[in-house]
Amino acid sequence: MTSYPPDQPGRRPVEPDDAELGGADHYDEWQPPPPAGPGYQPTQGYQPNQGYQPTPGYQPTQGYQSNQGYQPPVGYPPLQPVYQDQSARSRDGFSIAAFVLGLVAIFPLAIAFGIVGLVRTKRRVRKGRWMAVTGMVLGLAWIAAIIGLIAVAVGQQPSRSADGKVTKAGQASLTDLRIGDCLKLPASSGTGSMHTVRDVPCNEPHNSEVFASVTLSGSSYPGQIAAEQAALALCQAPGRTYIRTSKVRLTLLVLVPQRLSWNAGNHDARCVAVDPAGDHSGDIRQDR
């Protein structure tokens, strides 16, 4: 069989008839396709899409209210802000008490109430923290002052030897005076009650000497004048014995307890011989 020649442009092969199988190849001329029909016409009534038109705005269902801020459920109180106005806070009573007690020197309670006040005002719920701190500071200051006074008083007390004689001068209270102590009294001092007197060694200049101690009777404090009169009467007998051997003119003086000392149980008075003319070094009954 004769092969078909290659395709030629514009021609298409045709099948030969049986009688023509041995003959030459036959090709019909190419016929272009019929022209297209009239332009496409859309279906009557169809409207082309003239750009996207958004759906009209959503309208909520009638009666619906939009959420204009959170509204708490019915039956629950609205939430309160954590911050509290400073002016609405009350003053803490313990802090106030600590401040007042510190001013009047009741220092144990001032310190205790101050500690409680600090705890109660820690979270700023109550006012008055500065008063709690001030009360504690005042209480501690009073304690320090008392300790200082005690230290000064102890340091000013006279020193004594093993046999009780004064070896170092110092300020002595009535209860600290012993028979035989030599005193350095002011020239203007007289019979009465004194807080402290100057107690010195007898080999140092002095103008007075304790020669007796008497006990006053009675349970209640008789008053200063009555106590002095009772002490002078009791000191007369030992005074005559003491002064009898004196080479100088001596004066009798008594030292009586004060009310607080009396109430504490001290009812003893001291009998003192005084040389108003001057000081002695040694026994006051001897010449200078």
Can you characterise this structure?
The chain is of the alpha+beta class and 288 residues long. The chain is 27% helix and 15% strand. A six-stranded antiparallel beta sheet has the order 5-7-6-8-10-9. Strands 1-2 form a two-stranded antiparallel ribbon. Strand 3 (159-160) and strand 4 (166-168) form a beta hairpin. The protein starts with 10 loop residues before the first strand and ends in a 14-residue tail after the last strand. Residues 18-24 have low confidence and may be disordered.
Helices and strands, with pairings:
Elements: E1 11-13, E2 27-29, H1 93-103, H2 107-120, H3 129-156, E3 159-160, E4 166-168, E5 170-173, E6 182-183, E7 196-200, E8 208-215, H4 224-243, E9 251-255, H5 259-263, E10 268-274
Antiparallel strand pairs: 1-2, 3-4, 5-7, 6-7, 6-8, 8-10, 9-10
Q: What are the defining features of this structure?
A:
single chain, 288 residues
Strand content: 5-15%
Give the overall silhouette.
Answer: rod-shaped
State the end-to-end distance.
183 Å
Spatial order of strands in the largest sheet: 5-7-6-8-10-9
Whole-angstrom Rg:
62 Å
Please tally the helical runs, counting DSSP H or I stretches of 4 or more residues.
5
What is the count of β-strands?
10
Provide the succession of SSEs. Answer: EEHHHEEEEEEHEHE
Residue ranges: pLDDT <50 for 5 or more in a row? 18-24
Largest sheet: 6 strands, antiparallel
Structural class determined from secondary elements: alpha+beta
Instruction: Estimate percent helicity.
Output: 25-40%
In short:
This protein has helices at 93-103, 107-120, 129-156, 224-243, 259-263, and strands spanning 11-13, 27-29, 159-160, 166-168, 170-173, 182-183, 196-200, 208-215, 251-255, 268-274. With 288 residues, the chain is an alpha+beta fold. The model is unreliable at 18-24 (pLDDT under 50).
